[in-house]
Amino acid sequence: MPLAQAEDIVRAVCTDKWDGERLSPSLFVGENISVSRLAVIRLADHWDLFRQYVQKPPERWLELIAQINVGRLQNIGRSQNPAVALTVEPKPVDWNPAHAEIPQKITRGLASKILPELTLHQPPPQPSFPTTPLRYK
Amino acid sequence: MTTLSLPTKSPAYTLVEGLREPAAASAVRRGAPDEWAREELLLRKLGSKGWGRVYQFRNYYESGWGEKGRVLSPRALDAFFRFLEDATFPNATTVPSVFLTDRGGIELCWEDRNGKSVQVEFTGTGAEFYNAATDEEGVVALDGLTHLSQRLSA
User: Fold this and answer.
1) B82: Cα separation from own chain's centroid
2) Which residue in the set B49, B101, B129 is minimally distant from A26, CB to CB?
């Protein structure tokens, strides 16, 4: 059963799709685009999940997490000429129970209209080391 | 006449087999001449960041990178360089961006004089493009790259 319009989904953005200035449209081009549901796993926990299973150091690092509302995504599809009825289907996998897919084919033109609507999240600041010297006794 | 020669001494140490470096491997590797021209082209049109990214995509992204990524196609790379030779980009504050696509293609993105997005993805069979100014998208074969370059250039 497709996700409700109210849900928000995220997609990992790694170094191959982000150069520090522009986001690659191919992030959303093609069929069966993998996304993840914030209703199942909160955003803060996606950082660890994507770092563990999506980034592949040393060449591929997680840079950002892109977020969009399902209803907003569907509106963009409907406004395309010809209209595309986009859905997001839950597809849990071993490493990610929140995994879902957009099964429809997204063209380069449609992907280019999705990109400006994404909310881009920067990685949370790393925990700092304690400034108080430790004492050993 | 008597010739004095120093007695041959065995070296103070010898490297074990595993640490010996074959002569070929220790030699400086140089790219082929056309490879230099390509590197110069990359630096001229995409700057050091673009050069570095292409270098990384060629040398460090092995098959299976990411979710289901394919290794960069040599034919796609040839198409990319062919396009780059003919392309001219507007004198914007930022140079075009280069990305690796999951199917082993290489993607070039920039903005035209009016700030509208232009994108081309090079694959083993040609190129897929999108021009936001005209909302036009399509596919061209390898022999259509020069024409595409002229159409999309500033």
Assistant:
1) 12
2) B101
